[in-house]
Amino acid sequence: MTDKPLTIAELERWIEDRLQAAGTPGAAVILERRGEPLLARGFGYRDVAAGLAADVDTVFGSGSVTKSVTALAILLLEEDGRLSTDDAVVAHLPQLRLPGDDAAAITLHHLLTHTSGLPPLPSRHYAWLSQDNLEPSERKALEQLPPRSPIRSFAELIDFLGERRFTRHAPAGAQFSYSNEGYNLLGAVVERVSGQPLATFVRDRILAPCGMSRSSLDLRFTLSLDNVTTLYVTENGETRPSANWFDPACWIAAGGLRTTAADLARFFRMLAQDGALGGVRIASPQSVRKMTTGYAPTHDGGAYGYGLSVSSLAGHALAHHGGGHKGVSSMGGFDAGEDLVCVVLTNLAGAPAPAIWAACVRTALGLPVGPLAPPAQPITLPLETLRSFCGAYRSGEGANFTVTVDAAGAAFVSMGELTAPAHPTAEDAIAFTAPGGRQTLRFLRLGAGPAITHAFHGGRLIKRRAAAPTR
């Protein structure tokens, strides 16, 4: 890859190559400055078998990009004077109970910034179990869960949190750790305070005013439209279509927005323009400032605001969010200073949406293609330090990896069928290469003693469950 910025034509070819290398059936990309498109097109297919091409009006899933919409919904209720982000969550969800009876310490601000102290939990799996249209392979995988009834609503999610035995990894406000449960609780708050279903409130107060006519949290609406993507999954090295969407009712606040590249670009354009679009005021500048303020350091050089990650690139302030689950890999965001907006939507989990988004933004800023943050360089650590990282790390949400060090002092990370060599990049971090690219584990001591207690990976604090033997 050249060290010079790409032209738009070169960028398009680069995107095509990356999508093809990842086996991604289809995607849509919009890159615009001051509302004028630099790049706006579909790539590949929304339906491979039918030969139907993807375009910027194709409806895709957006995954956790939804959190930006949910955060704005909370802020609009704050603008209405109906709540404050400083409110305790139990002020609006009095039935919420947590182990240790310390739910009262958690505020809406803590949920918005992923600093509630909630660990990664298995509620996603029990929520997915609520769907009646699961494929046989999906149902078989979920049958491995400890028996429990499915979670079918926000109220049942709250009940699940009350009955689940877990330990919060830190007091509220102390540590960032990405929590889907937290954002679904915010969805419950929107419904309780507004008196409307979340999908209705979001439609009336955000999507319709932004002109996002092909976007919704309601899957029934999505499936009534034309030009909706087929979802694709990869199994045993082969990519195949799947008929059902991930759509638990209690999960829409964290990841339920189905949208188009054209629609989602309007949402981020509105935020880039301090909450107004086409002469219509959707949100106040103060609400946008809250969304784009980096309150919570994320252990990877960035910070989290309200429903948006914030980072710096060559002196430019970026606000963005990615998303991914079955049949979805996405990323969207903006640089308000340059009035620059970029959206990438795909129809395959694990597709390189973040890398494409970074390449688009860097090209628009006159920078060569590369990641948002340069990779840390390898360093040397004492063998004793490396061995202190060793252990088996597990979370209820599904993270499962082991760190080991062999007799020669070489470190390895094992995840599923992958065992990869790892190299220290900081006094508390190691990096390794997985099929999706370079990944980093950062190790923390959150307990009273000197031992490592957690590893930060995938935005989450993953608890160390057991020491690992030397290889």
Description of the structure:
This protein is 27% helix and 26% strand. It is an alpha+beta fold and 471 residues long. It has two domains: 1-374, Beta-lactamase; 383-466, Beta Barrel (Lipocalin), CATH 2.40.128.50. The strands form five sheets. It has a nine-stranded antiparallel sheet with strand order 3-2-1-15-14-13-12-11-10, with helices on both faces. It starts with 7 loop residues before the first helix and ends in a 5-residue tail after the last strand.
The gist of it:
The protein is 27% helix and 26% strand. By secondary structure, it is α+β, with helices and mostly antiparallel strands.
Task: Give descriptors for this structure.
471 residues; alpha+beta; Beta-lactamase; Lipocalin; 9-stranded antiparallel beta sheet; 27% helix
